[in-house]
Known about the structure:
Strand content: 5-15%
Number of domains: 2
Distance between the termini: 36 Å
Oligomer: single chain
Mean pLDDT: 93
CATH architecture of the largest domain: Alpha-Beta Barrel
Number of helices: 15
Order of helices and strands: HEHHEHEHEHHHHHEHEHEEHHH
Structural class: alpha/beta
CATH superfamily of the largest domain: Glycoside hydrolase/deacetylase
CATH class of the largest domain: Alpha Beta
Helix content: 40-55%
CATH topology of the largest domain: TIM Barrel
Amino acid sequence: MKERLLSILDHIDDVFVRNYLRFFVEKNALLIFVFHNIFRNQKEIASEVMDPQQEVTLDHFRRFIEYYLELGYGFISPDKIISSLNRTKKYVLLTFDDGYFNNIHVLPSLREYKIPALFFISANHVRDNKSFWWDALYRGRKKQGYNKKEIYAEGKSLKTKKTTAIELYLKEQFGDTILIPVSDIDRPFSPSELKDFSNEKYVFVGNHTCDHAILTNYSKDEIKLQIEEAQKAIYEMTGILPSTFAYPDGRYTEETTQILKDLGFHMGMSSNFRKNYLSNDFGEDRLLTLNRFYFSSGSKIAKESQRLRADISPFIAMKNIKNYFAKKNWKQSSL
Length: 335
């Protein structure tokens, strides 16, 4: 029943958005997009060595870039947001979360189109060559015959725990080797690879905590430690001291943003599913909770991009209502 209702809403939204973009001019805004994995082909997606998440291939990624370039969007670097944006133009900022080695495959596209991208690094995964817990869960449960829906439900329940507790649970379930990556598809960068990658002209590096710590599960001192230690580690590996931060799983509170401010960060990325309108000032507080979009599937990028460009979308309105109540739960759980 739920799937049927979502299908109906999706169809209504599709018709509404197409007509909106036909008769109205979209407002100038900064659209920030988050990606995680980049697969070279469908075979890698089907390998089941990791959670495929958005299932974005290199072909999907190139078509995404070309779509927004054809519409007149400018792809910008994070320092451009801090300095100044022309309110008469439309912009895109590309971001990648976590620090997967497979992100290296986008370099030819960044060079070809001369567009920057911001990569948020979970420091200890890189230093220790450790699998991300959701990939370990997916890989382990797939071998046991679980379907994706069952695995995602279990993953959702684990998001109320600290990373160390999640990793202990996984070792109890699958054995001590479960957090060892099994291929170039699922592993993080090595420190030397990250160093070389960070030296690329179109690559910018940001902080994603030491352990991909969902910060609403941590105390104030623990949050500060996760961020500060990641800063030190990223600097040691790359020579770069990040000024940008992405909240793991998009979860944050006012306390979290204040910690970022106190630590001297200039920009923070949330999971708020909205445009960043240029009609509003990009003040310090707003820069620490910038909105980001993500695609549900690489194959749906063109369709979903229409929805994201429109300034009114029933589907996105429903999604943001759901996110509003989720945030209230995060804040209550962190008290």
